[in-house]
């Protein structure tokens, strides 16, 4: 789940819990409050009556005094004497009969539905229940039961209404919280997304790029600064590693050249015994391989350290033909047929020497991994965005599971091949770097035991002229 969704859910959840607690408090307050007010009012009325009863000596006097109390019309009051005889009651008491209960109250009873039209004028609008309290009073030696009630709204219906209102309110709060928290989370995470995008852009070729750090010392800026420090360290160790390879291969170059010279001199001597000459020949072969490896390492590290790429115009056909010419002896030795097909006058700009080196590496492979009496085709084609130079051979090919790795440095398909052909696995890496320096790409296709085609694609901007008529040799 995305962090943005998680944060939205957390904020919404927390907000919803707070709303629930708040609603619960409001709910209980609103349920309790009306009852407390009515009960207080009834208690207050009863207190008045008790006070009067203490001052009266007869029931009649008591009733007359009670009648003088203000606003009794809207109360349901019944004074009951010995044997349950009703001594006096308010108009509402007369119109609505409420059966007696054992407990003194306060308790709630439903008003009969429908109540008489006269009675309905006496109760409040929406009143459908009655809150009742019963109390005994002593007048001289006689005991009186006073029942007093006040009409009020049906609280059950009110509670249902309140719950409904709260549920709607909570649903609205949930929708609002989910929406706003999603927006807020988006705002908070925007710099993180930006950082993520920039961090993804930084790879071994763009190690000098850095994430912009804002002025405020907040956590995100601190994170950006820490990431930048990490990139500093990475860049430093990458560069140190590249510099080490460059320096090491440079230091090896002269001793290897010297050893080759000594071996060559030894081979020219006629006085050496046969077994010793054989050893010397093997040594000379190995020194040749070592010298190639040192050169390849030097070339690769020069390319990785950002060597300068010259931009000069040259005819592709001339370059390809001259390379084929250089391989003439090797081709005839192995019976390989070579052909070049290039649009007439195809002229490109680039570093001729480096592109030559890339094509020579491809030709090396096309000859090395070809079969006897096979074929090598060098072709150039033009397209709308790219123009391509490809080298095709009818050799052993590359298994599909290996083809994705051949551009990695020191990668060789099947270790037995390296023993047989003696490569170090740097040729295609160098090709890839050279083409990348020219803004292009390399691709490789192959059918095992059938053919292999390596294609260099250069952006059309590097094309100066092409008549479009292919010329072939
Ligand atoms: P180096 O080029 O450094 O002398 P190499 O030829 O082994 O050594 P690459 O040119 O990088 O290294 O090629 C990598 C691997 O890809 C090779 O080991 C080889 O197995 C395979 N490969 C490359 N080109 C071809 C090809 N045309 N046909 C078949 N296999 C190939
Ligand atoms: Mg090679």
Can you offer a commentary on this structure?
With 473 residues, this protein is α+β, with helices and mostly antiparallel strands. It folds into three domains: 3-161, Beta-Lactamase; 219-303, Helix Hairpins; 309-464, Histidine kinase-like ATPase, C-terminal domain (Heat Shock Protein 90), CATH 3.30.565.10. It contains twelve helices and 14 strands. The protein has helices at residues 3-55, 59-67, 91-95, 117-122, 155-201, 219-268, 274-304, 316-326, 328-334, 352-368, 415-421, 427-437; strands at 76-80, 86-89, 107-110, 127-139, 142-153, 312-315, 337-343, 347-350, 375-382, 386-393, 441-447, 451-459, 463-465, 470-472. The strands form three sheets. Strands 11-12-10-9-7-14 form a six-stranded mixed sheet, covered by helices on one side. A five-stranded antiparallel sheet has the order 2-1-5-4-3. The protein is rod-shaped and about 160 Å long. It starts with a helix and ends with a strand. The relative contact order is 0.07. It binds adenosine-5'-triphosphate and magnesium ion. Residues 296, 361, 364-366, 369, 393, 395-398, 406, 411-413, 417-418, 423-429, 452 line the site of adenosine-5'-triphosphate.
What is the structure about, briefly put?
With 473 residues, the chain is of the alpha+beta class.
């Amino acid at each position: 789940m995305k962090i943005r969704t998680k944060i939205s859910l957390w904020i919404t959840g927390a907000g919803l819990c707070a709303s629930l607690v708040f609603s619960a408090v409001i709910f209980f307050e609103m349920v309790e409050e009306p009852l407390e007010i009515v009960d207080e009012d009834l208690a207050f009325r009863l207190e008045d009556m008790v006070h009067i009863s203490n001052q009266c000596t007869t029931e009649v006097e008591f009733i007359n005094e009670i009648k003088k109390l203000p606003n009794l019309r809207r109360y349901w009051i019944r004074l009951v004497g010995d044997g349950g005889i009703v001594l006096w009651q308010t108009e509402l008491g007369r119109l609505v009969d409420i059966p007696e209960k054992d407990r003194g109250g306060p308790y709630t009873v439903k008003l009969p539905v429908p109540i008489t039209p006269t009675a309905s004028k006496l109760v409040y609008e929406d009143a459908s229940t009655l809150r009742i309290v019963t109390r005994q009073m002593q007048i001289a030696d006689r005991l009186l039961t006073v029942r007093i009630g006040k009409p009020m709204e049906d609280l059950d219906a009110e509670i249902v209404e309140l719950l409904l209102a709260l549920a709607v309110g909570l649903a609205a709060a949930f929708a609002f919280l989910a929406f706003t928290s999603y927006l807020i989370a988006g705002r908070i995470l925007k710099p993180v997304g930006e950082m993520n995008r920039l961090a993804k852009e930084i790879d071994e070729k763009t190690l000098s790029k850095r994430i912009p750090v804002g002025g405020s010392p907040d956590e995100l800026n601190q994170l950006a600064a820490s990431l930048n420090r990490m990139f500093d360290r990475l860049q430093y160790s990458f560069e140190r590693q590249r510099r080490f390879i460059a320096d090491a291969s440079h230091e090896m170059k002269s001793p290897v050249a010297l050893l080759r010279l000594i071996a060559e001199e030894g081979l020219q001597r006629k006085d050496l015994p046969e077994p010793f000459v054989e050893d010397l020949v093997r040594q000379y072969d190995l020194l040749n391989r070592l010298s190639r490896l040192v050169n390849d390492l030097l070339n690769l590290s020069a390319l990785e350290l950002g060597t300068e790429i010259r931009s000069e115009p040259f005819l592709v056909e001339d370059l390809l033909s001259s390379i084929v010419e250089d391989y003439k002896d090797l081709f005839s030795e192995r019976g390989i047929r070579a052909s070049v097909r290039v649009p007439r006058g195809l002229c490109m700009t680039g570093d001729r020497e480096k592109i030559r080196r890339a094509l020579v590496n491809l030709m090396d492979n096309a000859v090395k991994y070809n079969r006897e009496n096979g074929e090598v085709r060098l072709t150039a084609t033009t397209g709308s965005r790219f123009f391509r130079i490809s080298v095709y051979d009818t050799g052993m090919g590359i298994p599909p599971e290996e083809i994705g790795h051949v551009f990695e440095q020191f990668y060789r398909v099947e270790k037995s091949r390296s023993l047989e052909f003696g490569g170090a696995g740097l040729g295609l890496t160098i090709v890839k770097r050279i083409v990348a320096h020219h803004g292009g790409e390399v691709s490789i296709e192959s059918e095992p035991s059938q053919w292999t085609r390596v294609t260099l694609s250069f952006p059309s901007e590097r094309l100066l002229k092409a008549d479009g008529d292919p010329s072939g040799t």
